[in-house]
Amino acid sequence: MATQQVKNLASKTAIVTGSSRGIGAGIALDLAKRGANVVVNYTSTRGEAAAAQLAKEIEPTGSKVAVVQANMAVYEDLKRLVDAALAISETGKIDILVHNAATGDDCYLEDMTEAFYQAQTDVNLKAPIFLTQLVLPHIARGGRIVLISSVSARMGMPQQTVYAATKAALEGVCKVWATELGKKYGITVNCCSPGPVATDMSLLPEMYELGTECEPDVLADFQPIIEATPAAARVGEVSDIVPIVSFLCSEESRWVTGSTVSGSGGMNFI
């Protein structure tokens, strides 16, 4: 007999960026099943149908859902996410902010351009900083901020100069915000660091989830590491990552802050 979902996030409101598919969609659906009203975010027209389908899956949970198109690199678009969250909030507050959106195109250092650098840092680093700034005036006491990092932040994989740098930066930002914002706003701030994850699109590292193709040599670089992963010789599943994030969004994680939790099956110890 199936167990009933625990509604441990009832009446809370969450924003999950990059949530039309993959890990982001899994997080948004699970938060809704736990009782949270959720803002689902997509960027491109390609993500619109997936976001609409996710909203249909959320509706039977009884939670409210708002689907918002927002380019994470555009400041004015970030405001739309905040406005949408406040519109569905039962308390006039935002309780949970999950920074999942990212772009991870491949590029060797020799081929890098300023435009390439700017495009990645705008989405992977600038957007979390300024979206959090916009949310702070509305964040609830006991609120939760979760940043999705990556094993790439620590593993030195080729072609990931900017991606690895932005993910390492998020782990640093996590510690700063835990210290700077914790007591002032009564919140916790943590990171979850997935390894390669099989999304609903294809068997790719999660860093490529938002639509870019993974170079075969990058997958080849990962394969020996995957085979040596301590928990099991496989990549992760969305269902491996979602419960970690949901825990970090819950009251049960109240004594966890400034931490990076590895969701990599031991591929990368933290």
UniProtKB/TrEMBL annotation:
Organism in which the protein naturally occurs: Phialocephala subalpina
One Pfam family, short name: adh_short_C2
Alphabetized PROSITE patterns for the sequence: ADH_SHORT
Keyword field contains Membrane: no
Domain of life: Eukaryota
InterPro entries: KR_dom (IPR057326), NAD(P)-bd_dom_sf (IPR036291), Sc_DH/Rdtase_CS (IPR020904), SDR_fam (IPR002347)
Gene Ontology biological-process annotations: fatty acid biosynthetic process
Name of this protein: Related to reductases with broad range of substrate specificities
Similarity field: Belongs to the short-chain dehydrogenases/reductases (SDR) family.
UniProt keyword terms in alphabetical order: NADP, Oxidoreductase
